[in-house]
Amino acid sequence: MEMTESQIKSIVGEVMAKMQLGSSVSGMHGVFTDMNTAIAKAKEAQKIVHRMSMDQREKIISIIRVKIKENAETFARMGVEETGMGNVGDKILKHLLVAEKTPGTEDIKTVAWSGDRGLTLVEMGPFGVIGAITPCTNPSETVLCNTMGMLAGGNTVVFNPHPQAIRTTIFAINLLNEASLEAGGPDNIACTVEKPTMDSSAVMMKHKDIPLLVATGGPGVVTAVLSSGKRGIGAGAGNPPALVDETADVRKAAEDIVNGCTFDNNLPCIAEKEVVAVDAICDQLMHYMVEEQGCYLASKEVQDRLVKTVFNEKGALNRKCVGRSAKVLLKMVGVDVPDNIRCITFEGPKEHPLIAEELMMPILGVVRAKDFQDAVEQAVWLEHGNRHSAHIHSKNVDRITEYARALDTAILVKNGPSYAALGFGGEGFPTFTIASRTGEGLTSAATFTKRRRCTMSDSLCIR
Ligand code: NAD
Question: How far is CA 40 from the centre of its chain?
Fold first, then answer.
């Protein structure tokens, strides 16, 4: 059903009014005032989910898919309005991607060995209630995608979301529970608290009924989860470099890199955060970026003003700049540009703060390298050992292999925009929880299960 702009605005207004922070969230499924109650409710729901057939779980997931599609625009508008980050058009695409391509129960597989001594199965079983912490950069996308995978694996989930995105998160959690109820499943397959804090997070991390924690966010939260004494899946920060060598289709590289970098105003953790270009094609690449791809070439003076604006006095990121468009960022430093400017670029050394730091803004510094070896070394330095994502534009397979080995990241996109790794213009499934630090890589239903071996000795082999 097509909705008009004013209908969408009125829905967003209604939901926002209903969910003003501090006021009651009665009527919203899965939302509780305290973390212990949220966990107890999710535990009750998990007992039911565990007994459900795979078909029943899949039925809930298929209704979730329909509801996400119906509400993609509302989610996108709520996310942008509440966090001030990203852009509505790209956020709609992200929600449609989650709805259409997040794996469901087909991801849960059994391995079997049968032979002279009988039959052995390895099955993927649920952990129970999973405790998940989510970022403000992809708030509803992460909650929806995590829940679909966790539910497919037979789990329920309690979220301690970023407080800056609580209303959008609550809207997502309500939708997930409505889908479950519609499919004949239990309420509270996904739960949260009205006011998430560090304290509610600590309760979740220590709770006896939470056997698995999944943290999606910066280094602080991943370290906290990994220090909890429980099994932790850590999806941490990145600073993905895009290397371009002289064998690349330089014009296409410029297009792919700027498309990837500017997607949702550079919020995705996998997005190109800087470019390392070999000297032979560096000028040509920048020419295409500026002349054909809507990049604004920042002077030294504008770069200095940007540094002063995007970092605070303590050197931390100014949250008012994260996920803003190039036009807005430039306006903050007194530069007016036309609407077709979608990215800011300049050439600088790898140590330049706008290059070395993970900004999550469409600012794409270009580092010049004397040759391919030098480019690889600079890219390794820029990735800071996160082993998260890296990208390369080259036609030389040996070089691509060398780069992949040197960077050793969970994601490596060759000759395409970074979002191709999420199944968007590339093969494969999407996720917004890329377990870079703990090594599970792109998470899906199977990631949220534990392996159980079941052996029948000396029978049930009928070969
Ligand atoms: P953030 O680290 O500020 O917050 C993430 C979540 O962790 C929030 O819910 C926050 O409340 C919580 N948190 C932060 N410190 C905590 C602590 N010490 N103990 C408990 N909870 C804590 O990140 P953000 O700004 O919301 O998101 C952006 C960051 O997340 C970037 O670094 C980005 O690369 C990363 N990220 C990674 C992935 C991935 O899949 N690897 C996905 C999205 C975002």
Answer: 28
